[in-house]
Amino acid sequence: MAAQQLAQNRPGVRGALLYEAFAAPENFGTWPDGLPVQVHGMDHDPFFGEEGDLEAAREFTEGREGAELFVYPGAVHLFTDSSLPSYDAEATRLVLDRSLALLGRLG
User: Fold this and answer.
1) Are residues 44 and 66 in contact, defined by beta-carbon separation less than 8 angstroms?
2) Three-class SS of residue 100?
3) Pairing between strand 37-42 and 67-72?
4) Domain locations in the chain?
5) pTM of the full structure
6) pLDDT number for residue 62
7) CA dist 3 to 8, 37, 66, 70, 73, Å?
8) For 33-97, what is the HEC assignment?
């Protein structure tokens, strides 16, 4: 949530990569016009998928230019952290590839 709040409120931010959390932007003000964003999370993550983050991300990204939502199959939180039992190497590879693609577009 801190990354999202920063992206929405700090002048000069060029893009946002949000992993496993998303709140309706109204919680932090307004979403800056033209600010690209990627949201990544598992569909049945007990926090992201089951507590409203996924629903909020779907609503926000649908039809919005520069906003992408990537949903991975699974039911764990912190799946990109290789030090945890919840680590999912395949999903993490996709997260990294997609994140690097966004960063490359920001050039």
Assistant:
1) no
2) helix
3) parallel
4) 36-107
5) 0.95
6) 97
7) 9, 11, 17, 17, 24
8) CCCCEEEEEECCCCCCCCCCHHHHHHHHHCCCCCEEEEEECCCCCCCCCCCCCCCCHHHHHHHHH
User: Which amino acid type is present at position 57?
Assistant: A
17: number of CA atoms within 13 Å, CB side?
Answer: 12
The pair of structure tokens assigned to 14 is 């060029």
Phi, psi dihedrals of residue 12, rounded to the nearest 5° = 95, -5
Rounded CA-CA distance 81/21 in Å is 15
With vertex at residue 39, the alpha carbon angle to CA 44 and CA 97, rounded to the nearest 5 degrees, is 100
Per-residue pLDDT tens over the stretch 40-94: 999 999 999 999 999 999 999 999 999 999 999 999 999 999 999 999 999 999 9
Burial class (CB within 10 angstroms; exposed 0-12, middle 13-18, buried 19+) of 11: exposed
